[in-house]
Amino acid sequence: MTDRPGLDALADRLTPVRRIHPAQAMAAAAILTLLGGALVLATLGFRASHAGTTATDTMFLIRTGLLIVLALASSLAAATMARPAVGTARKGWLWAVGATTIVPFAAIIAALVSETPVADQLYPVNGIECLTYSIGIGIVIMAVLTLWMRGGAPVSPERAGIVIGLAGGSLGALAYSMACPHNEIIYVGLWYTLAIGATTLLGRLIVPHFVRW
Amino acid sequence: MDADDETLSRLMALAQQGDKTAYRTLLGECESWLKRYYARKIGHETLDDLVQETLMSLHRKRASYDPDRAFLPWLAAIARYRWIDHLRKVYRKKETVLNEDLIADPADPAIAAKISLDSLLKRIPEQQALAIRLTKIEGLSVADASQRTGQSISAVKVNVHRGIKRMSAAIEEGQ
Description:
The complex is a heterodimer of chains A (213) and B (175). Helix content of chain A is 71%, strand content 0%.
């Protein structure tokens, strides 16, 4: 390009910009999750208020821990993708996905060996409620992360869509988990996986259209 | 590259604050660097357009640069993104003349090798890289590339498509 005035014109158009920072996205996701959790508690109540469940049930603690790990890894991946650089390894979220897939696998095994009919452990009414809240809150989080990501420069819009979907789904599920009264691995393996899978698919299909540049 | 990474990073930090003089200097340096970066990876007739597009992307996405990190890996990520976008769009017009006289002569060869387009092409299978080189960089028709490589016409098309897709997923991966 020997057109030097082109560079002059570009320089003339320069205006100060506020640097994009991953902390902005992480803070927005955290605030929205807290608001989502507050909505869940206000409408459904905390899980300990349901008969037979407590805040210290092993499954609740494990589920909460796994969702936090998946949410942190995917949110961080999404947030850092906005600032690209060759030589950047962003594989942490894949390990988190790998770790959490133990839940649906364990659910399949439990279903295969269960003496109680599987249908009796699915609780579809609660399951639909789980999907509604988790996906609903997740979509709001995804929308905000996508809007934020548009200010950045993700060089893999498809991967950005996947991690935004994962982040939205896991944070939505985390918010709903506060009210979820179930401890059965089959229930958790089915409905939570469906919720996070749905937002991830949604992210992969829709988000790239908005963040491509 | 005339200016080192530290200088470019400082210029970009000033540009983010609205310093037009620093920005103009930076753009000039980036223009020279990009010409060398794209050397022999794009036809001579489209080199200027691609450099221009990349500089426009730099301008639009300047808020995404973090001055605490190196500048060239950020610029290279943007340049790779634009290059792959260009490969997707380009259709054969005529056999392309490559800029044989433009050879990357970086101040730091180790960094340059890590962020180069060659290192990206090396990340995909050889047959895919060859199909991309012939049809998208040298400007051969699919039929000519098929004859040259011994791959069928459909194999050339598939290799180009898959190769571009794989490179697109590996933009941020270094050597």
